[in-house]
Amino acid sequence: MNEKSCSFHNEEELRDGQVKSVSAGNSPPKDQDSSALLAFRGIPISELKNHSLLRALTTDTNGWAPGVVSPEVLRAQEEWEAVQNIQPDTGSQTDQPAQLISFSEALQHFQTIDLSSFKKRIQPTIRRTGLAALRHCLFGPPKLHQGLREERDLVLTIAQCGLDSQDPTHGRVLKTIYKKLTGSKFDCALHGDHWEDLGFQGANPATDLRGAGFLALLHLLYLVMDSKTLLMAQEIFRLSHHHIQQFPFCLMSVNITRIAIQALREECLSRECNRQQKVIPVVNSFYAATFLHLAHIWKTQQKTIADSGFVLKDLEVLAKKSPRRLLKTLELYLAGVSKGQTSLLGAQKCCGAPAPHSKDLTFTGVCDLPPHSSEGTWPA
């Protein structure tokens, strides 16, 4: 009984001393540390939670005030919180690059969204009057079949849509084009000087899509994502960086898309569309065939950027007059490429000084030349 009483008094004294020491913010002396250990040794583990000293140590600390914190610690804490709150900008590189997008997936995006406001702007066919209308009726190409006109209107509607940097699908299309042409495995920003390396005139590709809209980017996507035309696209891209014959690749592509739009509106592709019972594949192939013919002329006739406007104008006339001929040439070229027998550039190396940025080149597109005396007019 005396031992229990002595133990009880020792515990009371130890508890009072420890609690006062802790509440005062001071460390207990070393002799009290050893006394506390001796006091806890005789207590079962299951009863520790009921010990008054442990309850005092584990009570709510809402009223506890920390000591003085140095300005360096506060500044470091603020910087760390700022780092945690940083959000990546749109289009910046991330640890997980955006997945490549196929032409069919991008096309499906436009097939599922509301394009009614853009569709109101299209003019599906060229309006002809007088002798031009009579001549077209007697000797012109056949009209597009009724069942294909909705598909034709979709093509022309996409050409009215601009590039929206806030649309994830639009961003994926741009990044896919960049990766496939450059061979890069990393994402790129949607704005920046790197787009000039691909042949846009400035840091924002959206400013170069006049007259062709997002269809120009879909055509580029088709060119680089189709296994049959990717090698052709890469060869033309290398030609565009030739130290003498350089030209803005993407800007040239936009002009060829304009030619394809005009050929569709003037019903130059109707015969082939009716034969294949498709519109979009025919327009894609026509675009690729026209681009191939331009590259062939550019290389073999030693054309330079000063010739761009006149080359494109002659190309437009030929493409509208003989679309089937261009499509057949593309078919033969791709067959040769698949067998390793055809190369646009051959063994020629693009050597010499590096090609300048497209903004340093004076490029004349189709829309920049005075209109020739044709039956149709370019869409506004």
From TrEMBL:
Residues 1-35 are annotated as: Disordered. This is ELMO domain-containing protein. InterPro entries: ELMO_dom (IPR006816), ELMO_domain-containing (IPR050868). PANTHER family: ELMO DOMAIN-CONTAINING PROTEIN 3 (PTHR12771:SF2), ENGULFMENT AND CELL MOTILITY (PTHR12771). It comes from the Eukaryota. Residues 9-18 have a biased composition (Basic and acidic residues). Residues 169-323 form the ELMO domain.
